[in-house]
């Protein structure tokens, strides 16, 4: 059987590329280093990798960073693999239209899988990032849509008008600035890849670029 998952690290795999609309690309990520079994971050766009995921041991837990990752595939993933769904409690109304939330996320904590849940509101009220300790001790930071690479080689964020909160986003970026990740993995992205190795020199620059993209309060509420 041909595996369609792309190995990024010894314990981290990426699903195939999906483009919800021109200029935007997404993947889901299977982490095989969870303490209670395999973990899927974000959500797949189709069932094309289901057999490949099953060959890797299936999915014990799935984590959504925010409501935009919820959709009909949640139900298909639930039926095929039966994972526990971890998702923001503040966005349960939208997410549970597709699948029940088993573990509502509301505060910062390290859970039984070894996943550190970091609330980062701004893109949406319940947005979360996830930090895990992966192969060779590397810190994988899954940022959802809180920050992501652009097609210009920089990093940005997006505060949706009418839903996002610029002040909350700036605060959330301050939380991320205090972390020391080794690999940053966004959900949606506009550049060639959502995955970027970072270090003590590049991480502050990435945070500064993302912060510069946050609109002023006046701009976000005008129009």
Protein architecture, described:
- Strand 5 (29-31) and strand 6 (39-41) form a beta hairpin.
- This protein has helices at 50-55, 73-81, 92-95, 166-177, 202-212, 217-221, and strands at residues 6-9, 12-14, 18-21, 24-26, 29-31, 39-41, 61-63, 84-88, 103-105, 109-110, 116-119, 128-133, 139-144, 148-149, 155-156, 183-186, 188-189, 195-197.
- It is globular.
- The strands form 4 sheets. A 7-stranded mixed β-sheet has the order 1-2-5-6-7-8-9, with no helix packed on it. It has a 6-stranded mixed β-sheet with strand order 10-11-12-13-16-18, with no helix packed on it. A 3-stranded antiparallel β-sheet has the order 3-4-17, with no helix packed on it.
- With 223 residues, it is of the alpha+beta class.
- Helix 4 packs antiparallel against helix 5 (202-212).
Supply database-style keywords.
single chain; 223 residues; alpha+beta
| Relative helix content | 10-25%
Number of strands: 18
What integer value in Å does the Rg equal? 16 Å
Low-confidence stretches: none
String of helices and strands: EEEEEEHEHEHEEEEEEEHEEEHH
Q: How many helices in DSSP terms?
A: 6
Topology (SSEs and partners):
Blueprint lengths: L5 E4 L2 E3 L3 E4 L2 E3 L2 E3 L7 E3 L8 H6 L5 E3 L9 H9 L2 E5 L3 H4 L7 E3 L3 E2 L5 E4 L8 E6 L5 E6 L3 E2 L5 E2 L9 H12 L5 E4 L1 E2 L5 E3 L4 H11 L4 H5 L2
Parallel strand pairs: 6-7, 7-8, 8-9, 13-16
Antiparallel strand pairs: 1-2, 2-5, 3-4, 4-17, 5-6, 10-11, 11-12, 12-13, 14-15, 16-18
Helix pairs in contact: 4-5
Offer a concise description of the structure.
The chain has 6 helices and 18 strands. It has 223 residues and is of the alpha+beta class.
């Amino acid at each position: 059987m041909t595996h369609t998952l792309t190995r990024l690290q010894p314990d981290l795999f990426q699903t195939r590329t999906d483009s919800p609309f021109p200029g935007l690309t997404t993947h889901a990520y299977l982490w095989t280093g969870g303490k209670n079994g395999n973990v899927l971050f974000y959500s797949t766009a189709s069932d094309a990798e289901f057999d490949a995921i099953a060959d890797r041991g299936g999915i014990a837990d799935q984590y959504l960073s925010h409501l935009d990752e919820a959709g009909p595939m949640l139900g298909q993933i639930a039926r095929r693999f039966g994972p526990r769904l971890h998702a923001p409690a503040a966005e349960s109304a939208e997410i549970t239209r597709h699948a029940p939330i088993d573990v509502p996320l509301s505060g910062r904590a390290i859970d039984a899988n070894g996943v550190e849940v970091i609330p980062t509101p701004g893109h949406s009220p319940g947005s979360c990032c996830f930090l895990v300790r992966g192969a060779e001790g590397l810190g994988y930071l899954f940022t959802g849509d809180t920050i992501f690479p652009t097609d210009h080689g920089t990093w940005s964020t997006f505060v949706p008008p009418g839903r996002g909160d610029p002040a909350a986003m700036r605060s959330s970026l301050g939380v991320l600035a205090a972390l020391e990740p080794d690999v940053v993995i966004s959900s949606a992205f506009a550049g060639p890849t959502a995955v970027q190795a970072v270090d003590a020199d590049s991480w502050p620059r990435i945070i500064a670029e993302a912060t510069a993209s946050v609109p002023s309060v006046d701009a976000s509420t005008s129009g």
